[in-house]
Amino acid sequence: MRFRSLFFAPLVAFATLTSCSTDDAPEGATAGELNLYSSRHYDTDIALYENFTEATGIKINLIEAGADELIERIKSEGEASPADLLITVDAGRLWRAEQAGIFQPIDSPILNERLPENMRHPEGLWVGLSKRARVIVYNAEAGLPEPLSDYADLADPAHRGKVCIRSSSNIYNISLMAAMMSRMGEAAAEEWAAGVVANFARTPQSNDTGQIRAVASGECQIGVANTYYLARLAASDDPADQAVSSAVEIVFPGQEGNGTHVNISGAGLVSTSPNPENAIKFLEYLTSEPAQLLFANGNNEYPAVPGIAGTSAVVGLGEFKEDTLNASELGINQAMAIMVFDRAGWK
Ligand code: FE
User: Fold this and answer.
1) pLDDT for 87-144, tens place per residue?
2) How many angstroms separate the CA atoms of 264 and 126, rounded?
3) How far is the CA of 262 from the centre of ligand 1 (A)?
4) How far does the centroid of ligand 1 lie from the alpha carbon of residue 43, in Å?
5) To which H or E segment does residue 132 belong?
6) Among 74, 113, 139, 198, which is 20 to 30 Å from 98 by CA?
7) H helix runs in 60-162, sequence order
8) What 3-state DSSP class applies to 236?
9) Which of 75, 70, 76, 54 is nearest to 291 (CA)?
10) Cα 297 to averaged position of ligand 1 atoms, centre (Å)
11) What is the DSSP string of 4-21?
């Protein structure tokens, strides 16, 4: 676990005749602090924190660790927890935090206005700050194996021995299964999972990038990965990554149906937060355009606020219709999704 202090001396507010309203002026030492527990760790996140401190005078104390570790830490710190905000990836993890009882509702008209409904928990327990889509990749040289227009097709008997996907314990797959269950019901989702297992090219292993590499090498014809891994490879300076990137093609599943499964990076306000106003101020800042560009683009994700463009690598993946299922649904079905995977024999 790393602990960083990101204090920056507040800017001196020059009171000149030409200066604008002092509403935005730093509040200096009285602005206080914000204790951020984050499982994200991108260089651009650091720039975000610095910009926020510069604009508001609020000092950010950052603790970085894995999401489950941070949830446990907040739980064990109890009432005395210094944590104000928990930032993490995947609605499944936000749901775990919600289940652990460590969030309180966020009340912010600015967030309600800027973020679409499906990027906000129904009771305001967390907000989505960026999005990622879970897409199908196939080997470009071998061409599009058909049918392959939706997740359901991954179970088609035409694809025996062709499909690579990571294990069922992976949160991205658990959330995808949760979405499948919401859309098709538990029994059909289990049948689907059994069909995908029957099509495995290999026992589930490695991470999303590993699936993409296996598809590029031809070990598998079909794989599943989150968009930011594809964009990262496409934007890489490494010729080996470039070769992998150009050896695969993407299918955005469900374009004729419910749309492509989308998940979020998000944040929740800790129930015992000592600095809730600062925490909400920070969340509101994260939905501003400059902050969205840093937060989403630092990891090649899609900004959560509509109308803000992604990186060129992300835009290059193409446009698609996204499934607008509320991310909270992905959490509700988590426990059942794990059982369905087990019954289907998905390792
Ligand atoms: Fe990831």
Assistant:
1) 999 999 999 999 999 999 999 999 999 999 999 999 999 999 999 999 999 999 999 9
2) 11
3) 13
4) 16
5) strand 127-139
6) 113
7) 67-77, 91-99, 109-114
8) coil
9) 54
10) 14
11) EE---PPPP----TT---
